[in-house]
Amino acid sequence: MGASFAQKDVAGVVESVKAAADVYMPIDGEIVEVNEDLRNDPSLANSDPLDAGWFFKVKVSQPSQIDALLDETAYKAFAG
Fold first, then answer.
1. For residue 1, what pLDDT is reported?
2. What is the 3-state secondary structure (H, E, C) of the chain?
3. What is the pLDDT, as a whole number, of residue 78?
4. 20 pairs with which residues across the strands?
5. How far apart (Å, rounded) are the C-alpha atoms in residues 41 and 46?
6. Is the dihedral of CA 40, 41, 46, 47 positive or negative?
7. What is the CB neighbour count within 10 angstroms for residue 61?
8. What's the pTM value of the predicted model, to 2 decimals?
9. Short-list 31, 77, 75, 29, CA closest to 54
10. Which CATH code of 3.90.930.1, 3.20.20.70, 2.40.50.140, 2.40.50.100 fits the domain covering 4-79?
11. In the predicted model, is pLDDT for residue 64 greater than 90?
């Protein structure tokens, strides 16, 4: 907590038995909270990503960057 990152910086790493993947910062900001429950139960990232499986909370530095992010509908169309 307290670390600041620029958009597209690596803000963390997700590890599994077979691989590791970087977690990129979607916007400029400061990490203000980390989900400790996720450390204890990493499966929450898959089983409940929109509620209990969040990674960290960010204090946004550049609010205008939010406009360029996909909403849920656009993301589902992109990923679908």
1. 86
2. CCCEECCCCEEEEEECCCCEEEEECCCCEEEEEECHHHHHCCCHHHHCCCCCCCCEEEEECCHHHHHHCCCHHHHHHHHC
3. 95
4. 15
5. 10
6. negative
7. 14
8. 0.83
9. 31
10. 2.40.50.100
11. yes
Q: Which two structure tokens, joined as six digits, stand for 12?
A: 């963390």
The string of pLDDT tens digits covering residues 14-52 is 988 899 999 999 999 999 999 999 989 999 999 999 999
The Cα 28–Cα 9 span in angstroms is: 9
- Domains of the chain, residue spans: 4-79
Which two tokens mark 52? 């209990």
